Each structure stands twice: as structure tokens, then as C-alpha cells.
Amino acid sequence: MYVILVYDVNVKRVGKMLKLCRKYLHWIQNSVFEGDITESQLGELVHAAKKLMDQETDSIILFKSKEQKWLDKEIIGHEKSVLDNIM
User: Fold this and answer.
1) Any idea what DSSP says for residue 82?
2) If we measure between CA atoms, which residue out of 44, 47, 57 comes closest to residue 14?
3) Tens digits of residue pLDDT in 16-70
4) Which CATH number does 2-68 carry?
5) What is the value of pTM for the model shown?
6) What are the residue ranges spanned by the domains of the chain?
7) N or C: which end of the chain has fewer CB within 10 A?
8) How far is the C-alpha of 3 from the C-alpha of 39, rounded, in Å?
């Protein structure tokens, strides 16, 4: 599945959340990640994120799609992180 993940966490936890999300998805902008991920990997990511979060003040929003091709993406301005398919 294709996922866009957006998080808003306390500044004390930003570094840990960034490191966690980079293990599973591509960083595209501050606190925003995207990429293909399996259900199992997404479960691992969410489980680990919940351990880092203060669920009273922090949040994660997930946008899910079966495939990236079903999502129109338009970038206006500078693209912070270009996703190249380099093999």
C-alpha cells in the first residue's frame, strides 16, 4: 500500500520520530513522509510510534491508498526531497 504519514509531536520527541519514520518511509518535507509499505511494516511503525508519543498531545495522520498511481501529487515551489528510483 502507499502511505503518506504526517506527524505533529512535541519538540522533545521530533528527532526520535524522524528517525523511526525514516526506517520505513521516504522523508519529503518537515514531519511528512511517503512511500510503499506492507501492512506488517505499517503495523510495526504505528506500534513503535505509539510508544514514542504522548497520545494526549502528539498526533500522527495516515493517508492510505492501494497504489501511488491512484493519488495525484502536485508540488508547488521547491521540492525538499526528490524521490529517485535509483537501483
Assistant:
1) -
2) 57
3) 999 999 999 999 999 999 999 999 999 999 999 999 999 999 999 999 988 777 7
4) 3.30.70.240
5) 0.81
6) 2-68
7) C
8) 10
